[in-house]
Amino acid sequence: MTFDRSIKIAPSILSADFANFGAEIEAIEAQGADWVHIDVMDGHFVPNLTFGPPAVAAFRKHVKTVMDVHLMIAPVDPYIDAFAKAGADIITAHVEAGPHIHRTLQAIRGAGCKAGVALNPGTPAEAIYPLMDLIDMVCVMTVNPGFGGQKFIHSCVEKVADIRNKIGDRPIHIEIDGGVDPTTAPLVAAAGADVLVAGSAVFKGGTVNTPDVYGANIQAIRDSIK
Ligand code: DX5
Ligand code: ZN
């Protein structure tokens, strides 16, 4: 992975057909997805359950771009090696998920992955300032994690600008996760985000048999930013 600040669209397969992940991943990549975002939930840190390492390893066989694994789990540390072995390019852990985020981020890089740190809407930007030398990405949650299709929380946009300012010239991505669509994407892009996760806004109205709908949805997000 080379670093650049151009806008990248990362569809979340949380909104895909759960009986057809391989074809869904191939469809979104063929239709212009830059990264593939995988939402791992444990029913404890967040009130929903999704995928473990074997499922993520199965997804890897279909991902040709970047596999971006968002861990909404606590504890995190016992599972880092398993998600790295499953083929994650980036592993993101939540700053709220445990008392030792510094150690967690070191372990992610130690496992050979890029390290991301995510902040819930209720967590201030400053929570990640001591971690700047340990991270390759900040994921600013613009919904409370756990479910796709929630309403974008506008008060998080100011936090994106603060983090962008703090990052300066460091090669750290800012990812936005939750409620991204053509009405909200321009707000976060203007504030300095470069990776836009979108679940419902990419998959809505389409199937693997009508993949051009995914392409149009991705393009609509890109066009909203120009
Ligand atoms: C929420 C997840 C998101 C979610 C985004 O907990 O981390 O990645 O799938 O879905 P939309 O784009 O529908 O808000
Ligand atoms: Zn996510």
From TrEMBL:
<dbReference type="InterPro" id="IPR011060">
    <property type="entry name" value="RibuloseP-bd_barrel"/>
</dbReference>
<feature type="binding site">
    <location>
        <position position="39"/>
    </location>
    <ligand>
        <name>a divalent metal cation</name>
    </ligand>
</feature>
<keyword id="KW-0862">Zinc</keyword>
<feature type="binding site">
    <location>
        <position position="177"/>
    </location>
    <ligand>
        <name>a divalent metal cation</name>
    </ligand>
</feature>
<feature type="binding site">
    <location>
        <begin position="177"/>
        <end position="179"/>
    </location>
    <ligand>
        <name>substrate</name>
    </ligand>
</feature>
<dbReference type="GO" id="GO:0004750">
    <property type="term" value="F:D-ribulose-phosphate 3-epimerase activity"/>
</dbReference>
<feature type="binding site">
    <location>
        <position position="70"/>
    </location>
    <ligand>
        <name>substrate</name>
    </ligand>
</feature>
<dbReference type="GO" id="GO:0005737">
    <property type="term" value="C:cytoplasm"/>
</dbReference>
<dbReference type="InterPro" id="IPR013785">
    <property type="entry name" value="Aldolase_TIM"/>
</dbReference>
<feature type="binding site">
    <location>
        <position position="37"/>
    </location>
    <ligand>
        <name>a divalent metal cation</name>
    </ligand>
</feature>
<feature type="binding site">
    <location>
        <position position="70"/>
    </location>
    <ligand>
        <name>a divalent metal cation</name>
    </ligand>
</feature>
<comment type="pathway">
    <text>Carbohydrate degradation.</text>
</comment>
<keyword id="KW-0119">Carbohydrate metabolism</keyword>
<dbReference type="GO" id="GO:0019323">
    <property type="term" value="P:pentose catabolic process"/>
</dbReference>
<protein>
    <recommendedName>
        <fullName>Ribulose-phosphate 3-epimerase</fullName>
        <ecNumber>5.1.3.1</ecNumber>
    </recommendedName>
</protein>
<keyword id="KW-0170">Cobalt</keyword>
<keyword id="KW-0413">Isomerase</keyword>
<feature type="active site" description="Proton donor">
    <location>
        <position position="177"/>
    </location>
</feature>
<keyword id="KW-0479">Metal-binding</keyword>
<dbReference type="GO" id="GO:0046872">
    <property type="term" value="F:metal ion binding"/>
</dbReference>
<comment type="function">
    <text>Catalyzes the reversible epimerization of D-ribulose 5-phosphate to D-xylulose 5-phosphate.</text>
</comment>
<feature type="binding site">
    <location>
        <position position="12"/>
    </location>
    <ligand>
        <name>substrate</name>
    </ligand>
</feature>
<feature type="binding site">
    <location>
        <position position="179"/>
    </location>
    <ligand>
        <name>substrate</name>
    </ligand>
</feature>
<dbReference type="Pfam" id="PF00834">
    <property type="entry name" value="Ribul_P_3_epim"/>
</dbReference>
<keyword id="KW-0464">Manganese</keyword>
<dbReference type="InterPro" id="IPR026019">
    <property type="entry name" value="Ribul_P_3_epim"/>
</dbReference>
<feature type="active site" description="Proton acceptor">
    <location>
        <position position="39"/>
    </location>
</feature>
<dbReference type="InterPro" id="IPR000056">
    <property type="entry name" value="Ribul_P_3_epim-like"/>
</dbReference>
<comment type="similarity">
    <text>Belongs to the ribulose-phosphate 3-epimerase family.</text>
</comment>
<feature type="binding site">
    <location>
        <begin position="146"/>
        <end position="149"/>
    </location>
    <ligand>
        <name>substrate</name>
    </ligand>
</feature>
<feature type="binding site">
    <location>
        <begin position="199"/>
        <end position="200"/>
    </location>
    <ligand>
        <name>substrate</name>
    </ligand>
</feature>
<dbReference type="GO" id="GO:0006098">
    <property type="term" value="P:pentose-phosphate shunt"/>
</dbReference>
